[in-house]
Design goal:
6 helices, mainly alpha, binds iron/sulfur cluster, single chain
Length: about 100
């Protein structure tokens, strides 16, 4: 479930442009496509509509429901933002799991 850049900027107290840059960085560094939870749903050559589920603008996948393994703790985005949760694709972004923004 995605939220808008404007809403994300309000929550993070940064500019829309800064959110856009962070989102782009997270998308480019995301390791989800190597994860068995992801690959169980999206077979070779097929990918989700969006990725970097941990990031505030993204959140849960609309397709992934079964949790197998989560490799987020090994991802550079996870380290960069000092994230603490896992299974963002099924449970929502870091801020959603922390209850800081709505999951719907
Ligand atoms: S922490 Fe997980 S969801 Fe976030 S960018 Fe990395 S692999 Fe993707
Ligand atoms: S959020 Fe975690 S469990 Fe979901 S696809 Fe990414 S690495 Fe796998």
């Amino acid at each position: 479930m995605k939220i808008t850049l404007r809403k994300a900027a309000e929550v993070m107290k940064v500019s829309v442009e800064e959110v856009r840059k962070m989102e782009s960085m997270a998308n480019s560094m995301c390791n989800c496509t190597a994860c068995s939870t992801y690959r169980n749903v999206f077979k070779k050559g097929k990918d989700d509509y969006y990725i970097a589920y941990c990031f505030i603008t993204n959140g849960k996948s609309m397709k992934i429901t079964d949790e197998k393994q989560c490799i987020c703790p090994n991802c550079p985005v996870f380290a960069k933002f000092k994230f603490t949760k896992t299974f963002y694709c099924t449970r929502g972004s870091e801020l959603q799991q922390l209850g800081k923004i709505s999951t719907t």
